[in-house]
Amino acid sequence: MATFKKRQSKQTPCQQCPLRALDHFRDFTPEELEFVSHFKMGELAVDAGATILSEGANSAHLFTVLSGWGFRYKMLDDGRRQILNYMMPGDLIGLQGTLMHEMQHSVEALSPVTLCVFERDKLHKLFANHPGLGYDMTWIAAQEERILDENLLSLGRRSALERAAYLLAFLYRRAEATSLFEGQRVSLPITQQHIADTLGLSIVHTNRTLRKLADRKLIRWAERGCDILDDKGLAQIAGWSGIQEIERPFV
Amino acid sequence: MATFKKRQSKQTPCQQCPLRALDHFRDFTPEELEFVSHFKMGELAVDAGATILSEGANSAHLFTVLSGWGFRYKMLDDGRRQILNYMMPGDLIGLQGTLMHEMQHSVEALSPVTLCVFERDKLHKLFANHPGLGYDMTWIAAQEERILDENLLSLGRRSALERAAYLLAFLYRRAEATSLFEGQRVSLPITQQHIADTLGLSIVHTNRTLRKLADRKLIRWAERGCDILDDKGLAQIAGWSGIQEIERPFV
DNA sequence: CGGGCAATTGAAGGGAATCAAGGCCGGTGG
DNA sequence: CCACCGGCCTTGATTCCCTTCAATTGCCCG
């Protein structure tokens, strides 16, 4: 089971949610805000490296990331790991586990993470009383689907260099959109092992591929993370046009 | 734009939907059935090979497959193609395009396909008046997400043989669940090029990989399609435990 | 009967995995 | 204070899975 380390409980009222201030997220109606603030049971804070949800568990909770980064992954019996996507502030976690019988992937914290915890039993009430929010849930699921589509294209048809370029450009743009500190350089808090497990490559070859990108001055590998110097250059290598979105979160 | 060939319009009333009879799909309440039968504008029949939806289009429709097979795919500028998933009877098509601004993938018919066409403008009414159906929409999107997750695991971490075995077992089980003719041998109406584009392999290597499976008597390549002889054997090679589902469709 | 598509097979080359080893750095304990 | 250790990054050498190039067959169709 998950190894939590609770550090605190309910803290940030939804009315003062810092994410809400970002252009990136849509505003609630007063009624929705009222509902959501009751939907939220509390907050959960976990350390970097902690398992937030694990494959096979059936008592899944529903969360939204309030701060920090995490990632979703699946594993084969012999230990091979595939990272499916990364979770950043505003992302919903555990929807699959809530709707289906059990989780079919795990979620791990990449940095210290704060989560808003929701009552899964009230989910039906959400659909019944706030169709706009129900619509949002579907929207969020469809958005995740899109990301996975692009990821599949990457793994199936892009070369190692293109794959790496796509991933880094993608992460950079998302990180930028959810950053609370505008203008600040965004640094990705991941190791090369994470990148390798995302791209479906070995760590050795990932390292060599990243070196090529660094040689071209597109990225720079900093201590325990990666700085993106030229996201447009990366997107161009990958043949990727970018995401267009006006997201709608939850919290 | 899409190259349709309409062969007929509204034909099968939702009340007599043949898919509804399958255990695999959940039943509607009378109110839901009533709503859906108005939600459905008509039917569209296209030939094998026709493009049902194409990437970049923004006037997307919303469809459910009534009969036949299709597939979703994305392409890179230079023509490399990645098949994302296959669409079978009961599957919803175009949800992403309906919720977002435009389609980011294309859909093509693999066999002659009949589609139920829905009014996208009534989608809000669906969420507002039939929360159960709204819930289903989210469920469907989450289910697709799961499939993509497993696919991503395949492309990233499984060997060519494992990948092929997984794909064939997966398609077989889905085909079986949506087949109207029980007991009949299910034959997959796809070419090796489709398989190659799904697995992210070249067609030559796909051919050699399928040969290995055929040599082990797990499959047999028939004229213009593939017969599955031992889906459990395939699943075992792939290290795949199967899908558990009680689906909920639409029509 | 020519032509095109799908499947098939051989041969050669390359991209990525694997094996192996070394450097850097922060943490820990004697 | 410094030796030891483990995690992460890096690099060289070798192997092999898969791609690419090329050519043949069989079949359906106009």
From TrEMBL, chains A, B:
<dbReference type="Pfam" id="PF13545">
    <property type="entry name" value="HTH_Crp_2"/>
</dbReference>
<protein>
    <submittedName>
        <fullName>CRP-like cAMP-binding protein</fullName>
    </submittedName>
</protein>
<dbReference type="InterPro" id="IPR000595">
    <property type="entry name" value="cNMP-bd_dom"/>
</dbReference>
<keyword id="KW-0804">Transcription</keyword>
<dbReference type="InterPro" id="IPR050397">
    <property type="entry name" value="Env_Response_Regulators"/>
</dbReference>
<dbReference type="Pfam" id="PF00027">
    <property type="entry name" value="cNMP_binding"/>
</dbReference>
<feature type="domain" description="HTH crp-type">
    <location>
        <begin position="158"/>
        <end position="232"/>
    </location>
</feature>
<dbReference type="InterPro" id="IPR036388">
    <property type="entry name" value="WH-like_DNA-bd_sf"/>
</dbReference>
<keyword id="KW-0238">DNA-binding</keyword>
<dbReference type="InterPro" id="IPR014710">
    <property type="entry name" value="RmlC-like_jellyroll"/>
</dbReference>
<dbReference type="InterPro" id="IPR012318">
    <property type="entry name" value="HTH_CRP"/>
</dbReference>
<keyword id="KW-0805">Transcription regulation</keyword>
<dbReference type="InterPro" id="IPR036390">
    <property type="entry name" value="WH_DNA-bd_sf"/>
</dbReference>
<dbReference type="InterPro" id="IPR018490">
    <property type="entry name" value="cNMP-bd_dom_sf"/>
</dbReference>
